[in-house]
UniProtKB/TrEMBL annotation, chains A, B:
PROSITE patterns recorded: PHOSPHOKETOLASE_1, PHOSPHOKETOLASE_2
Entry EC number(s): 4.1.2.-
Entry-linked SUPFAM superfamilies: Thiamin diphosphate-binding fold (THDP-binding) (SSF52518)
Domain spans labelled Xylulose 5-phosphate/Fructose 6-phosphate phosphoketolase C-terminal: 585-785
Keyword annotations from UniProtKB, A to Z: Lyase, Thiamine pyrophosphate
Similarity field: Belongs to the XFP family.
Name of the protein in its database record: Probable phosphoketolase
Enzyme's top EC category: lyase
All residue ranges annotated as the Xylulose 5-phosphate/Fructose 6-phosphate phosphoketolase N-terminal domain in the record: 5-368
Lyase found in the keyword field: yes
Keyword Membrane: no
Cofactor: thiamine diphosphate
Amino acid sequence: MSDFLSDEQLEGLDAYWRASNYLAVGQIYLKDNPLLHQPLTLAHIKPRLLGHWGTTPGLNLIYTHLNRLIKQYDLNMLFVAGPGHGGPAVVAQTYLEGTYTECYPSVERDINGLVRLFRQFSWPYGISSHVSAQIPGSIHEGGELGYSLAHAYGAAFDNPDLIVACVIGDGEAETGTLAASWHSNKFLNPARDGAVLPILHLNGYKIANPTVLARISEDELSALMYGYGYDPYFVEGDEPAQVHQALARTLDTMVLKIREIQREARQPRSSEAPERPLWPMLVLRTPKGWTGPKFVDGHRVEGTCRAHQVPLADFQQPIHLRQLEEWLHSYRPDELFDANGALLPDIAALAPTGHRRMSANPHGNGGALLRPLDLPRFADYAVKLEAPGSLRAEATRVLGTFLRDVMKNSLASNNFRLFGPDETASNRLDAVYEVSAKTWMAPLEADDNHLAADGRVMEILSEQVCEGWLEGYLLTGRHGLLSCYEAFIHIVDSMVNQHAKWLKTASEVPWRKPIASLNYLLTSHVWRQDHNGFSHQDPGFIDLVANKKSDVVRIYLPPDANCLLSVADHCLKSCNYINVIVAGKQPEWQWLDIDAAICHCQAGVGRWAWASQNDDDPDVVMACAGDVPTLETLAAVTLLREYVPDLRVRVVNVVDLMVLQPSYQHPHGMSDSAFDELFTVDKPVIFAFHGYPALIHRLLYKRTNHDNFHVRGFKEEGATTTPFDMAVINNLDRYQLALDVVERVPRLRDQLQTARSRYWSTMERHKLYLIEHGQDMPEVLNWQWTPANP
Amino acid sequence: MSDFLSDEQLEGLDAYWRASNYLAVGQIYLKDNPLLHQPLTLAHIKPRLLGHWGTTPGLNLIYTHLNRLIKQYDLNMLFVAGPGHGGPAVVAQTYLEGTYTECYPSVERDINGLVRLFRQFSWPYGISSHVSAQIPGSIHEGGELGYSLAHAYGAAFDNPDLIVACVIGDGEAETGTLAASWHSNKFLNPARDGAVLPILHLNGYKIANPTVLARISEDELSALMYGYGYDPYFVEGDEPAQVHQALARTLDTMVLKIREIQREARQPRSSEAPERPLWPMLVLRTPKGWTGPKFVDGHRVEGTCRAHQVPLADFQQPIHLRQLEEWLHSYRPDELFDANGALLPDIAALAPTGHRRMSANPHGNGGALLRPLDLPRFADYAVKLEAPGSLRAEATRVLGTFLRDVMKNSLASNNFRLFGPDETASNRLDAVYEVSAKTWMAPLEADDNHLAADGRVMEILSEQVCEGWLEGYLLTGRHGLLSCYEAFIHIVDSMVNQHAKWLKTASEVPWRKPIASLNYLLTSHVWRQDHNGFSHQDPGFIDLVANKKSDVVRIYLPPDANCLLSVADHCLKSCNYINVIVAGKQPEWQWLDIDAAICHCQAGVGRWAWASQNDDDPDVVMACAGDVPTLETLAAVTLLREYVPDLRVRVVNVVDLMVLQPSYQHPHGMSDSAFDELFTVDKPVIFAFHGYPALIHRLLYKRTNHDNFHVRGFKEEGATTTPFDMAVINNLDRYQLALDVVERVPRLRDQLQTARSRYWSTMERHKLYLIEHGQDMPEVLNWQWTPANP
């Protein structure tokens, strides 16, 4: 086969690759003498050697070749570096392109800049060894592995012009999320979305082991990729010139294939939907730590997992110093950089320019592209109610009508999608199907409903893939919401952690613009999974979120549909947060008309005068957060009205959980004086809470009256039972709450015995009825709020 | 092709299948009239219809055919039901086999038993709609999806005689864990381990959508399975007789293939290791809700996602009642059960007997097979130290030598494995390689180390697959430990939740025997991931665990290597817990000799007299939990000694976090009097904690002195920096702790200004040194504990 690249092209590519590798090694090792103008001495070497060489030359090779491709075809391309700790490579590339200097002017493109570039790497107050929010062009942190491909697809959705090149490390490829993400191609519409170009980089090893995919036969690997729905291309070698030729030729073919697929899908046609094509993907097999030291202390290093981190260390041994010097010289830096440390112009000219540079692609700083959603007036979707507790509604179904029109209004700008693991309809948001179906590229069958190639609801039965898609979509400047069964959102705990870290870091990076918030609707929640049982009952996700930085997280527990609307509207307008909304889907009593709901949600917490009773100087505060706790609290109020007619009770409802924290801990926190005013400084507070009680205690442990808070919530008692019994077995039921009041209010002490025996006989009746009838007692099923006599 | 089954065999299989389907429908719908001896009326139907029909007939079909296979070949087979909510099927099967009645004698094998069987299903205080710990023969909960295949492999390891039949739902197959678990075959040694027989059941739909794998071509699906390393067999149809024939023939072929693989691998051979074979797997495509109503209210149901839950509801419509009656009659119950409700003897005879019944396989109640580990004396591995703080050691490396011999002692019984996501060596447990390599079935290459087909260390770069394997291994009566980077253990949060739920439920099931605890070693922890940076820094897993039932979870923070040994020994001996041990791997000062360590760990908390000073009536208590907080606390003590020589300080170290809770909340909790004695009732307590401070506050909010606890810990400030700076940016450093003391002890008030300015100048020096040198100040690096003058 004749050569694909001319000698000149080959030399250029190789020079660029060498320059990037040189800069990567420099970052790992050097704190001075960046161009080896003096003989290398210990004084030039960093005291702590931290960094990861192994994946670096492969990433540099790919990046360099993609640059050629971008220039050749004027591509709009984004780069996602999946392999962990690929920092040295990506930083080197962004520096060579000039973007790094544009973002961080002190890292100039000269010898001083090189010193700064090298020194800051893995250095206190510098940058980390993996790609992070600090790196221009990146939407993906290379710390925790497994999310690159889902992020890449998220970025490609609704960006028809974009190609997202996604390098997947063969270590990362063993993770669950990555393994599931390959199927994302079933949800990518070539007519409407951009393309993802997956590059599986087999360098053969992870930290300490060979990788699974590097050690199966090419036959199996090829079948696996075909089975995932790709057309795999293979490039393999350890001789640079040969690999350059093969890689350039292959990438060229692949880009033409992508263009052909897109051309085909986008041509005017009759009514038929585009079909899922066989997208090209690349398997690139090159040695780990390629071009690094072949042997160190008699052990093979290049091509083994010994090349993973720092192949040469312990510079007390002079031979290591000489090896490092040889290694650096092997890239021939004097042929790459001028005496002042600038990249030679003919090499620099090989990079794309302006926004065609992957490090300067606007999609890599999605906030810069963000347009606010055109939200309909949420109040128009409100439940109309005459009085508190006068009707029942399904909160999420009401929200669904609002989301339908959010979707409708965004159809022109194509910047909103709804995500869910097979649960959008189960979570009762199915009104959205009136304006958009679920994305589905496979041929349709009879009885298929709400499926279409141009659907904008994204459903795959993987919380992780949904989360990864949504993150990628948000990071490239769009909007979205993920609805999920509350218990199973824990599947993405670690992904949420990492996104929170990204948001915190990104907010400290001056050139990063705010992106839309990551919005969760958690429904089918712990108190209404009575039929599905214990495995479906877990309210702990909000505990995880509450551990994150207060400027990143928000937690909302709207008590009814109108509050849910108000909260959802607020979340969809916000930026740079992780918003968690917990709301039930079952028919429940409604409390606030829309005006009251708006005021209540704006305050985040409020005294419900209509439910309180002579509460200027209350005997007790009954607080509640969450829809079911609110219901049980109000039912307890009606019981107490009957038992103790003269009780002075104040009802406080909390929507925004973070108001409970002091204002110096969270921006939403109430001032101590307002808190004391609302919750009193010395009265018992019976707090009915949606989640684990400990969360309330920790949020308010700095408050004056905290010793008087008595919190009821989920105490890990789960079962297949009835809704009311779920409250009973967790001591959150109305009878228990009423008893709690009697127990805690000193002036009711003489009624305690009566109240207790009344409680126990009620519980006995409850249990007997439950076992006999399999459902809740009529007085529970038929309970309805009635206002007290004036 | 001639028929595989004789008419009689076919009839028998079909009758058994009909019987199980009948019982499943009965469970979902009926509370009375179980054999339709009277015409069906509303009074016979449950008031709340809960359950999942869709997956049921497929599971029943597979189970019935596996029974035939077991009898034919006298197989030792375990059944793992992956599809969610397969409860009605598996319960029906266990009832038909008699096991259900053996476990729950009130559910007799007669008409009264049938009423109880039906009624209890999805009924308060009954059983759930998915397979749970209550179901005989099960090791896998069908609630949260995705873990069946990893559980199955875990069960098969070291059980050479066992075949684990694992049904994978096509919904479940979309999850990350499941997608990654297929590669488990690379870690299964046919000579030593049993077999897994994966059955991918394509019924085409999940809750509300078609499934991905049901809608790709057979060509792609077949390639996918081959790519995963399997030899796929396909059976498809919707005509029972044809499917029975094809399924029986195919399963027969597959079992013979498994036997052939095992025979080949197990024959005496020269020295060569067995190779990974191409294991057979089955793709079974049958309609969702097969044999159920074909149409309801004009909509197609069988073969669509409308069959997912309860295909017929709203029995106010008389036609639905008639349809249900016809549906039940379609199984011809009078040909299956006698007038008293017993299964006819010739049908019953088709099931295996005794322990060959999958519901009575001892591996399904692993605790019954559990043998305690033969643990070496852990004290023999202790670090010898003359005095506290006299030397440094790497705690996990010391533990590694103990684990090496745990492994060694278990080689004969083959009942211990070590699991880790590519981190065993990085976590410095590599001494185990002296006695056992990592399991690796692929051909070895030059420079491959510690890899062997008979290795007992399990490494795949998926925390989820490791977790699933270990759970399956434990649930079938063996022992193990999973080591993981602390931050990334969040990847398995939801799996841990589900295992905790399993343990809680199982402990309430009288016939379930205790299984070995699920042991985690979390290392490479938040305070020593300074070089890897923020993405690797998260101590929140213990918060998640602390939310679980107190009789299930234990959290240990050993301050040094000897304490780690003691704690690890304790955990390896324990049953039915989730034990989380957090311990660093870096060289750190050692505090307790082994005798002191044993006493300290047994108590879980202790006053360290050697570090305290005139502490009978202390000015302040300095408490610490975790290795780094302990180091910083002791360093603060030496600083304070210098600043305030007459300070009376008591040092308390906490190993077992649960001692902080009141004894009525956790069995390890200290009594209030002991707590008050140790922590005082009125003195300031400066508590240096490994994790998020809120966890300490919530554990001790019931304690007398809780308002005086001032907790320092991780406050989500992460960076690529130095170890000491990590403490500084989170205010956990020695200088801050010392300042905290000065601030909190009333009699030191007049020294506060001096102390503060001293603190600020130290911090300035710290920061300058850090930026200049990239490492910590000499006084930090060289700090060593010195006892106070007597």
